[in-house]
Amino acid sequence: MHELPGHIKLIAFFTFIVIAVLTPIQQWHSFVGYFLIIFLALGISKLPPLTLAKRATIEFPFIIFALLMPFTAGGENFDIGPVSLSREGSIAGLNLITKATLGVFCSMILAGSTTAHSLLAGFVRIKTPSLFVQIAAFMIRYLNVINDQMARMKVARESRGFQAEGIRSWPIFTSTLGALFIRSYERGERVHLAMLARGYAGTLSSLSVEKVQAKHWRLGLCFPLMAAISYAVGKVFFS
User: Fold this and answer.
1) Fewer CB within 10 Å: N-end or C-end of the chain?
2) Are 104 and 59 in contact (CB under 8 A)?
3) What is the pLDDT of residues 165-183, one digit of tens each?
4) Same structural domain for residues 10 and 94?
């Protein structure tokens, strides 16, 4: 999985997600197949389980929202003991949790098995607008620089006796963010002028296209192909 070029992973996972999103939640046989495919991809990727668990916490807001839907949606109700739930809300909540989980796992596999350079080169290969790719490239490249600058500003605050004390500290934090924005803007302007002085013409030559072999396409297309088969099997059982 790690050796696959970025654009093949993007195409494979995007196709997989589209197939999963277009599948009605009533075709539960298909979703069993989708999750088996995801577990297979996780096994091939050999990503650390602890890292996956930490990254999966990003789904918590969607889970909370989905759990509230059976209680807030209208339509026909059904009772589970003393609790009355909306049938439409329950179906919609299950649909949201299931498809959001698939999307989160796909994103984690893609991010965990692909370097930033490979991912950006993949976006170039699939003809993503150059401006978007360059913005993402600079964001990744200078994120550590901004983090270091924030750390230095934190040390400067603490050396002057600053201590965070609830809402009273908000004006200090807002002024810090304002100063950080101004410094980032000035740094970006200096970087842009330096690039122009070195012959920058609107493209990043450092994002070289990766070499692709037939085995890469065979492995990459296995996942959307298996998803299509799962969809067809679920369609047969559902009908």
Assistant:
1) C
2) yes
3) 777 777 877 888 888 888 8
4) yes
